[in-house]
Amino acid sequence: MTTADRDAPVLTADELRELDAHWRAANYLAVGQIYLMSNALLREPLRPEHVKPRLLGHWGTSPGLNLVYTHLNRVIKQRELEALCVWGPGHGGPAVLAGAWLEGSYSEIYPDVSRDEAGMTRLFKQFSFPGGVPSHVAPEVPGSIHEGGELGYSLAHAYGAAFDHPNLLVACVVGDGEAETGPLAASWHSGRFLDPVHDGAVLPVLHLNGYKIANPTVLARMPHDELDSLLRGYGHYPLYVEGDDPARVHQDLARALDEAVDLITDHQRAARTGEATAPVRWPMIVLRTPKGWTGPGEVDGLPVENTWRAHQVPLPEVRENPEHLAQLERWLRSYRPQELFGEDGRPGDDVLACVPDGTRRLGSTTYANGGLRLRALPLAPLEDFAVPVDKPGATAHSPTGLLGDLLARLMADTARERNFRLVGPDETASNKLQAVYESSGKAWQERVLPVDENLDAHGRVMEVLSEHLCQGWLEGYLLTGRHGLFSCYEAFVHIVDSMVNQHIKWLKTAGELPWRAPVASLNYLLTSHVWRQDHNGFSHQDPGFVDHVLNKSPHIVQVFLPPDANTLLAVADTALRSRDHVNVIVAGKNPGPDWLSLDQARAHCARGAGVWDWAGTESGDGPDVVLACAGDVPTQEILAAAGLLRRYLPELAVRVVNVVDMTTLLPSGEHANGMSDAEYEGLFTADKPVIFGYHGYPWLIHRLTYKRTGHDNLHVRGYKESGTTTTPFDMVVRNDLDRFRLVMDVIDRVPGLAVRAAATRQRMADARTRHHRWIREHGTDMPEIVEWQWPG
Amino acid sequence: MTTADRDAPVLTADELRELDAHWRAANYLAVGQIYLMSNALLREPLRPEHVKPRLLGHWGTSPGLNLVYTHLNRVIKQRELEALCVWGPGHGGPAVLAGAWLEGSYSEIYPDVSRDEAGMTRLFKQFSFPGGVPSHVAPEVPGSIHEGGELGYSLAHAYGAAFDHPNLLVACVVGDGEAETGPLAASWHSGRFLDPVHDGAVLPVLHLNGYKIANPTVLARMPHDELDSLLRGYGHYPLYVEGDDPARVHQDLARALDEAVDLITDHQRAARTGEATAPVRWPMIVLRTPKGWTGPGEVDGLPVENTWRAHQVPLPEVRENPEHLAQLERWLRSYRPQELFGEDGRPGDDVLACVPDGTRRLGSTTYANGGLRLRALPLAPLEDFAVPVDKPGATAHSPTGLLGDLLARLMADTARERNFRLVGPDETASNKLQAVYESSGKAWQERVLPVDENLDAHGRVMEVLSEHLCQGWLEGYLLTGRHGLFSCYEAFVHIVDSMVNQHIKWLKTAGELPWRAPVASLNYLLTSHVWRQDHNGFSHQDPGFVDHVLNKSPHIVQVFLPPDANTLLAVADTALRSRDHVNVIVAGKNPGPDWLSLDQARAHCARGAGVWDWAGTESGDGPDVVLACAGDVPTQEILAAAGLLRRYLPELAVRVVNVVDMTTLLPSGEHANGMSDAEYEGLFTADKPVIFGYHGYPWLIHRLTYKRTGHDNLHVRGYKESGTTTTPFDMVVRNDLDRFRLVMDVIDRVPGLAVRAAATRQRMADARTRHHRWIREHGTDMPEIVEWQWPG
Q1: Which of A139, A316, A775, B29 is the most core-located residue (most Cβ within 10 A)?
Q2: What parts of the sequence cross the membrane (chains A, B) (predicted)?
Q3: Per-residue pLDDT, A6
Q4: Which of 1.20.120.520, 2.40.10.120, 2.40.10.10, 3.40.50.970 is the CATH number of B376-593?
Q5: Where are the domains of chain A?
């Protein structure tokens, strides 16, 4: 394209008039939502009582978002695209709501907010109004898959939506504030993992409006050549649209969008016909327009348009200050609403000329209501992967190794549908899931060397050293109707604490909207866990993610701690079939004893917690003590303790309880999986001492059970932040979760036992001393520990 | 510099020999640490029993780190620099330990690991050995301020160390794996906030060794021109050093380091003499050398050197496999240890030729033991900022507004010392701390427009829309001996959950090392909190950070919830004077009632929790019920409930307890601030109902108090994940924390009151209904709520 071409108008006068009408209408509606609760069409002069008593919302970003909505409409309609838009500056809710209302999507879902004057009035009043709609692009907004609250994840969500959707164009508006965040900065490289053959395209629109809440932005202020260099360094081909003259910007943006879509189409055609093999450098648009464009230029003598002062509500005192009121009225009338809306309040033909039809509308695309597109996974029978267990603890397997086999099959069985992805930060093999590579390589578009293994331009295993990208990609993938699993080192999943917060909030709210179809759950496999960080030590030890997610809306969250390989298969199957949940599975990767056959594992998972009769010594009179456990390492130590008790105190009636689903501990009224009090007491008794070996921070068990009868009898051992690079058994000794300490706990807590069992207690203390001595000398665990087997 | 210059050797033959000797010695020591527990100098042929039984550690990154250590030594010594190095790939602990041992720093701190054969043997054996040292660059490593565990924060730490240290050069090795993370990607822009006048310099060394655990890295595989474009886009001037011929790489790296230091010196001189005003584009080095360089080329027929297989332990079966053992011996002898170490095991003259003296050594710099450099803050008397409170609740102030005045004074009083910074993600003004701008502007090196306010190339308020950068900068600043405060929206501080995990782990371990001097605490001001997110709603509501930090080593963490303005001043003063803690302060920014005079606030904070006699109605017989509260909004609701009880049930003996320091609720054995059981029962009674209004998730209170007598009588109200864009009072109603519900709770729980107070209970229920009706109609809170004042 020559320079002359670049300046030639691409829009006819009619098109320009129509696009500008749509944009002005959207701007009018955005301002109306922030300010008005009546007199929506300005049929009478504006009076204070037309204005909301509390003015809340974000104007600054809205005109830019409106402009993008307008122009996406045009290009979608003209080219019959399937498109979705992720609105990074989603706090500009008024803009996206305006676009959805104008195109009719909004009224189809919310008929009381009809596309007429009455509906417009409701649209205005409900915005940021108690009982109304939130100020952000939230689940309530048609067409959205991205909450505009916490910034940084828009581009990762956009890529997640595009993976395995070859016909989809995902536009993504990235705010220049958001662009300063780490997750967003990392997301620019996502194109290096995007397959032009099987994936759709992402078109980033970097919106440089220059200011955040109170500051200029880095990307808007750095020199142009540096910005250009940065974006090319990210692997993009930037197209620039800059200005504050609407007519000119309309022409330039239309031209840039045409060019971008042409380039995308060319790239995809070349890749899909096999013409091209080099990595694609995808186009993007840099849109530089004023913050709060078309809003008040000055308020109270201070500049507002094109400054940070336009961020929220530019005229804050409209009800009290007549000058502000007059200025608001001038502002609203500057859009000439009478040209835009009919007598009945319906948008006029000019306004609607650019709007596409049906599900091509951004507010009606099924991609943004992914549950509508969801197909169940073809999960093979677990019998194909399970290990035989005739006698508890006689064999050992790597739980995640078995899961790897299941994932390999699943990858193979979804090869045509392409609706499952495995994501992880460079840890798939470290987490012992490498069997999956038999069916799918790792997504990779850059250069491949002979020494490389399992890289594949069409792979559906995603590995990048960024938990943020893994999480963001997967969220976008799930919300657009597919399935996935995130495998992560347990400690470092805290990196995405805040992202999972927001996803759980999304699922909670979406679940309350009848029009949103259920989506596949977000499944975490946390492994390389706190007890087995042999190479890495203290920095890699943190079991607190379970605590974190259990603070959130409990009905969304499920937490599984499978004690062995077959049980991991059973919970993974449950998780992969579930909908609208966040499932956290914590499992070991090192070979550990097999306790349960597949059938036993299934039954155990169905109950969530149960007595392991074979491990206890109680007769019909009930137990003297309950040994409870959750997690693979605590289960092994509890069973070892049960074995020691069996040997040294055979007259003691011991019950062993294993908890695989942590939420069963919650009262039945607080979680669907929660046990009734009767069930709880049936397992743990109401009055006997319970020694509980737990995988994570011990107080979590107290927090889950504080309402239960007998909770004063709970004595919990778990991780108490004592760690370093050491042996597996030394880790449990350091945290008082070892078998010897657990036996001492039993002796100390069963009434009357202290005197009778003094010799056994001393024997246990001696064993701990023996451990300390041995390990300092040999650097390994004692043979009696390494070779231990369940004695039953 | 011409091309010819670029190829000309900068090192003499002697220098080259000496540098290579140092590098080979460091490599030898790194391999020795991973493998050997005896025969350190290979005086006899290597036998299996010389090798550790468990082989743990990371070889792959070590030769590159060693190379950087060697060459930094040279440039530091030659130019008499004050320097510090942040080792991003800190899992290469063997390398940094090797460098510190060679230069003597290590033995000075740990005399038993002497710089001779016995010490070398200990150095080898202790590495990743139970009871020894961790495998990473951890607090135990002299010269370190950065744990090499969780990746992504090295560059932010480096900038934090450089701020306000004008004479310091901070080198920072960035691994190409780490470079894929979000926080690291954002950190490259930190130079745009670095003041060449008052700050030191950061010299990033991007080490492209090509592979992560199991994958190629993005930055190593993207085309060179794209990488160059990216780094220039980040505002850097990249110098490239590439190769696998040691002699050539030595020359090139020496040349690049000379050029980089020259450029830095020129930039600083120009800025400091006022010659230059344009933003500086700082040099950086791109070092491309093989992963596992000089290690085994092939093992068992598979390539290892220069592949991901070199990541951890290249020869895994040395004790069992004679071929591996022989290969290890050849590898170790390839460094020619007999040339490097004397008969006594001490490094020879060639090895030590490049090593600087005293505190110029990287392992001995006082900058990395920042407590040695720490000076107490000049904190003004709180009387200068406090508000008079003659009668509780008669006046109202913004707590953070008052704190802003304190911070403004502190900024002014540290203008010369420059040892205090305020960081925040674009929220300083939003959080009502804007008074601070009277004394310091916001750090900013890019272009300034006439419309901008408070930007200052020399400012010490740091605002960037990245919580990761705020946290990383501040951690680096604190660990090198200065003070700071991080002001953040409460919900979004979860973005740095994993970073604060690591910082708490660092402080815990550092606190156990007698040679590490105490550093200033990491202080959080969390505001714009869950109850006051009027503009933003659900996505901005999360009070769970308190739960998160309280899972960590409790003696490091303090959590304060000041109920009013004067109390915030008192806790801020405590926090800013404290050492080696993480202090979390949650406070309101909106004007709220003043409850305590400064003296009362100080006394209250000193106790951490106390009875507010003026608010209760008990006589000498003790209370019928305790109303407890923590947090500004719950305190107001509890007091309003107390007022309602006073009016409608005046005969009820009510006690009001306010908790300002959450850790007082913990048992005294678990936290230094914890109450004894007697103190706890003195406040809360052992047997009376306690209605507790808490700022965050209610179960936290149960988790802190489950060991207390009477904890079954606790009934806690708090945030239960019910939120949207609505009014302040509607938020508390939605979460059952409102005054009316609290009175109903009292009536439901005080024995015998239900019948007697049925009419009052109905009145409360009616008030809630009235609220729902009013708010739906008016969109505001009822006048009786807005105008409420403490009736006492």
Answers
A1: B29
A2: none
A3: 65
A4: 3.40.50.970
A5: 3-355, 396-593, 610-786
Contact criterion met (CB < 8 Å) for A134 and B91: no
Nearest-angstrom CA–CA distance, B391 and B387: 12
Which of A446, A451, A703 lies closest to B222 in CB terms?
A: A446
Tokens found for residue A463: 């590995």
Span A168-225, pLDDT tens digits = 999 999 999 999 999 999 999 999 999 999 999 999 999 999 999 999 999 999 999 9
* Cα B747 from Cα B761, distance rounded (Å): 7
CATH number of A396-593: 3.40.50.970
Rounded Cα distance between B720 and A8, Å, is 58
Is A3-355 a domain of CATH 3.40.50.970?
yes
Instruction: Please compute the mean of the pLDDT values over residues A310-334 and round it to a whole number.
Output: 96
Segments of B426-480 assigned E as strands: 442-443, 455-456, 461-463
Rg, chain A, Cα only: 30
Give the type of residue at A357.
D
Is residue A8 scored above 90 in pLDDT? no
Rounded Cα–Cα distance for residues B232 and B226 (Å): 10
B303 CB neighbours in chain A (<8 A) are 451
Distances (CA, A) of B246 to A628, B202, B294: 58, 26, 9
* Residue length of chain A: 792
**pLDDT greater than 50 at residue B1:** no
Q: How far apart are CA B521 and CA B535, in angstroms?
A: 32
What is the value of pTM for the model shown? 0.97
Using CA atoms of A759, A765, A771, A772 in order, give the dihedral in degrees to the nearest 10. Answer: -140
Edge-to-edge strands, sheet with B690-694: B609-611, B654-659, B625-630, B690-694, B714-717
The answer to whether B464 contacts A180, with C-beta atoms less than 8 Å apart, is: yes
The 3-state DSSP class for residue A604 equals: helix
Residue A41 has pLDDT above 90, yes or no: yes
Distance CA A553, CA A226 (A): 44
The CA-based diameter of chain A, rounded to the nearest angstrom, is: 98
CA distance B704 to chain A (A): 8
Do the domains A3-355 and A396-593 sit in the same CATH topology, yes or no? yes
> Would the CB atoms of B131 and A312 count as touching at under 8 Å?
no
> Which pair of structure tokens corresponds to residue A251?
């022409």
CATH for B3-366?
A: 3.40.50.970
Q: Which residue of B has its CA nearest to A153?
A: B182
Which CATH code fits B611-786? Answer: 3.40.50.920
With contact defined as beta carbons under 8 Å apart, do B578 and B561 qualify? no
Do residues A775 and A730 make contact, with C-beta atoms less than 8 angstroms apart? yes
A610-786 belongs to which CATH class? alpha beta
C-alpha dihedral, B263 to B267 to B269 to B275, nearest 10° = 130
% helix / strand / coil in chain A, to the nearest 5? Answer: 45, 15, 40
B681 reaches A (C-beta below 8 A)? no
Distance CA B373, CA B419 (A): 10
Average of per-residue pLDDT across B449-478: 97
* CB spacing of A177 vs B465 below 8 angstroms: yes
- Contacts from A240-248 at CB under 8 Å and sequence distance 24+? A240/A285, A240/A286, A240/A288, A241/A285, A241/A286, A241/A287, A241/A288, A242/A286, A242/A287, A242/A288, A242/A289, A243/A288, A243/A289, A244/A289, A244/A290, A244/A293, A244/A306, A246/A20, A246/A23, A246/A294, A247/A16, A247/A20
User: ipTM for the complex?
Assistant: 0.97
Residue B159 in 3-state DSSP? helix
Burial of B578 (0-12, 13-18, 19+ CB in 10 A): middle
**Number of residue pairs across A and B with CB atoms under 8 Å?**
354
Out of A696-700, A707-711, B501-505, least confident range: A707-711
